[in-house]
Amino acid sequence: MPYVRIEVTREGVTQEQKKQLIAGATELLVRVLNKDPATTFVVIDEVDLDNWGVGSLPVAEWRRAQAAARPRST
């Protein structure tokens, strides 16, 4: 009975995208591990951006730092 937990930031993930994530994760477990899709559970948690960190920074600050570090195209 596989259990898959997907966590994403709460930034407008649509119902259709969630449906695709659930189907895709289930299909992967069926294909790779021969699991029964009827007993495969997929849970999607949406996390507020303020509650997510990357590289010791809140993700919003990390993204700003990454954007500032990218070369600008002319």
Describe this structure in words.
The protein is of the alpha+beta class and 74 residues long. The chain has one domain (3-69): Macrophage Migration Inhibitory Factor (2-Layer Sandwich). It is built from two helices and four strands; from the N terminus they run βαβββα. It has helices spanning 15-33, 59-69; strands spanning 3-9, 41-47, 53-54, 57-58. The chain starts with a strand and ends in a 5-residue tail after the last helix. It holds the Pfam family Tautomerase. This is Tautomerase. It is an enzyme of class 5 (isomerase). Residues 2-58 form the 4-oxalocrotonate tautomerase-like domain.
**Structural class, judged by helices and strands?**
alpha+beta
CATH topology: Macrophage Migration Inhibitory Factor
Biggest sheet features: 2 strands, parallel
Our Rg estimate from Cα atoms comes to 17 Å
Assigned CATH superfamily:
Macrophage Migration Inhibitory Factor
Distance between the termini: 53 Å
Low-confidence stretches: none
What percent strand? 15-25%
